What does this fold into?
Amino acid sequence: RKVGEPALPRVRSAALAGAAAGLVFLIDPRWFPYVLMLSIPYAAWTAAHSHKPTGSSEWGKGFGSLGVGALATVGIAAVLALPLGEFLRLSSRAGLSSAEATAFSLPLGKLPNLLAPDLAGWPEWQTYSGAVVLFLAGVGLFFDWRRSAFWGGAAGAMLLLGLGSGSPLYPLLRTVVPGLAQLRVPARSLFLSGFAISILAGYGLHRILTGELAAKRVVRLALAIAVATLISGWAAASRAAPGASLTIWFPHLVSVGLVGIAVAWAAASRRGGGRAWAGWLLLILLDLGLVNFATLEVRPGAE
It folds into this structure.
């Protein structure tokens, strides 16, 4: 920037954010309502927790940045938004009923799979982000809550939204968020809940690597997750058909084992220096790699 142009970086940042939102619309318009539901509250949260405006000029600059971002979004998205809007009025999406829109909503009984994967389940109902990731997210949420409260709320809200008509949040947002009423499969909001959980895990990993957390608190959190996982496994096995108990218990026991390894590595990370993060990366790759491998279906080449 040039001397005497202090507002230029703010304008550029706002335009870049708006351009990113417009690019999302061009890539796939179905994700744009979810972008709105996450980015606008995040901007409000960030503004509320930054320096307080000291006068009308600061408020004016803030609203000016919002306007620049909106113009950038509209300018980039218009090439697709205008013909798409005309097409939607002529398509069956214009009369999409609430029952049709909530098809393939996340069943309430799938929420416990946050703790252990449903290896044979429908792909769009997978709430599992990883036992190690969930452990780190718990550290970030419960031991750094002032910093991570927004992302904890975002993860919870997106999980509730995925329930569709089974949640009081979906009918409300369907009438408020532009474009959400024309979308099906509310369970796709799980993408954003996984995103929020990943950010929480980053906060938790930072707390562990910097040694800002007492070991006893980490152990108590891990015990709570392990007990909840075992209870979830017991509840699922009690409802399963005879002979299927082992299949249900296996992922739950693996999750408990991974949480135990995570606790041990958390203790080692406090003494491991700057490279301790590599061990966490390997744990996460092992965890999610096992899930991915278990969900693959191998067929003969002739098929």
Summary: The first helix runs from residue 8 to 27. Residues 230 and 253 are 7 Å apart (CA to CA).
